[in-house]
Amino acid sequence: xxxxxxxxxxxxxxxxxxxxxxxxxxxxxxxxxxxxxxxxxxxxxxxxxxxxxxxxxxxxxxxxxxxxxxxxxxxxxxxxxxxxxxxxxxxxxxxx
Length: 96
Fold this sequence. Notes:
This protein is an alpha+beta fold. It is built from two helices and four strands; from the N terminus they run H-H-E-E-E-E.
């Protein structure tokens, strides 16, 4: 019985220490394979985004509370809360 408990403890430790390492490798591979796209920085105002990237292809009006709006550009979208950029999302291209 003691051997079973010891085996379970050793296996648990192996799994616990190997899982984070695997996750780091996958994350690094994913980041390195992603294409570099210039997008607005979080916290930029709408006027700063428009000055740097021009007029968006589409402007989706604000919804919700707080109001969240979206501007779509060729290759990425920018999400705003009130007048400030919250997040930029790069559009995924179709695989061949």
